[in-house]
Amino acid sequence: xxxxxxxxxxxxxxxxxxxxxxxxxxxxxxxxxxxxxxxxxxxxxxxxxxxxxxxxxxxxxxxxxxxxxxxxxxxxxxxxxxxxxxxxxxxxxxxxxxxxxxxxxxxxxxxxxxxxxxxxxxxxxxxxxxxxxxxxxxxxxxxxxxxxxxxxxxxxxxxxxxxxxxxxxxxxxxxxxxxxxxxxxxxxxxxxxxxxxxxxxxxxxxxxxxxxxxxxxxxxxxxxxxxxxxxxxxxxxxxxxxxxxxxxxxxxxxxxxxxxxxxxxxxxxxxxxxxxxxxxxxxxxxxxxxxxxxxxxxxxxxxxxxxxxxxxxxxxxxxxxxxxxxxxxxxxxxxxxxxxxxxxxxxxxxxxxxxxxxxxxxxxxxxxxxxxxxxxxxxxxxxxxxxxxxxxxxxxxxxxxxxxxxxxxxxxxxxxxxxxxxxxxxxxxxxxxxxxxxxxxxxxxxxxxxxxxxxxxxxxxxxxxxxxxxxxxxxxxxxxxxxxxxxxxxxxxxxxxxxxxxxxxxxxxxxxxxxxxxxxxxxxxxxxxxxxxxxxxxxxxxxxxxxxxxxxxxxxxxxxxxxxxxxxxxxxxxxxx
Length: 577
Known about the structure:
By secondary structure, the chain is α+β, with helices and mostly antiparallel strands. The protein is 32% helix and 25% strand. The protein has helices at 2-9, 19-24, 29-39, 45-52, 64-68, 77-90, 94-129, 148-159, 164-176, 192-197, 227-234, 250-255, 260-270, 292-308, 347-353, 536-539, 562-571; strands at 134-141, 204-209, 213-219, 239-245, 275-281, 317-321, 366-368, 371-374, 378-383, 388-390, 394-398, 402-410, 416-417, 419-421, 425-431, 443-445, 453-463, 474-480, 483-495, 516-528, 540-545, 548-559.
């Protein structure tokens, strides 16, 4: 071993070799032999040397060392050679591997970060609530008399949301009023006006549970007069249930020009709903009688339109044939004797197993106010769009910047709960503010990162329908989350070229149907909005005028009002002499 060490010190590759001893005396000969060795590497000596051991790989590599400083550095050759050889032997490979591994690492790290975030969100939920059922907000939309309220009422009954005794009482009242067949819809249509006319006016709310999930029903009105109410309901929903009447003549009326089916689909997409379940109702009607041809005809007509509205027919849209009045295919699958061609799941079966929407549990709190009333203090109603809320939290009510305290939180069953999370529809009792100072469209938000309150912003607009051209100075009603506010367009900034999709440099003189433009939008009072890229739910809106949807848009830039606030503050300053 001592001779081997000595040999290693003198850069002798191994004891078995005779040449190294000759190379000790003439140092000039090893360099002559080395070119021969540099020609040899293609036969892959590195692989065999690596397998052999730490002494043998030192043979080809010490060549540069003796030329520069053969005796100053060899003090640590055994370890040095062992450490250098692996890196040197692997050095040819890393350039390609390195690029590949960093590219792969990027995708891996983002994937891992998402997984970690998801796990963290689940842990937060468990810490706050223990194991809770997932919660979905569903809005029923469609043409008037398609059966939306009947479907909602029957779902409440078969899932236990309304007990049998209450249903019998409602049925008796309906019979006395001569509206015997309307009794299911009366579970959601509670006001005398709605019950007498058989038309939903305000967004009805109800709650039910299945074995796997919790649901909040938002029953939107179908009549075109009450579209603003429908928009506020759609703004609180995660999934839209488009109810279509399969009865001969009724589908055609609702779907053709002037019917509400088309407008409702466009509005829910603008409101931020990503999934649509199209329920083809009244399949038990004598004119249909569970006919596959009628079902396929309706499906084929609806699919291209739903696709043009921005939904992917393969991933975002599901068709389910049902009978809301008889309850067939709602909870249990329809019998093969009645409908032999349908192999899909029932309505509740599909809802329980559809992918869950993303929830921003760890984001700052944002809760747009949809309703408010007075009951032992100011109470606000709304859906938590992001973050979570706990009893006793000190929060800010925008745009008035009122500092409020959460006195109590009530869930859908009117039970008091200690906390609520993103996606929940809750009632919150506030301390520190009067109900007269609150309006629908206000946002309850975190004081650390409050929602922006602005008077001016830039937005991309898609003009859907307008009989005239739209010029600077045009005014309309804007619906954004739960807020409806009159706005004006002081200036049109750019238009998008249909051929290239690029923005124009010069501002357009006007905008007409089918065009996309960037416009400056102004309100009289500050409103709570965010950029679409930051908070989609608070950054998308609809413009309506004369009872029609004129345009849909998304906010791209906010204009700050801080300068105005300073000037207003300075205006009230008085200097005493």
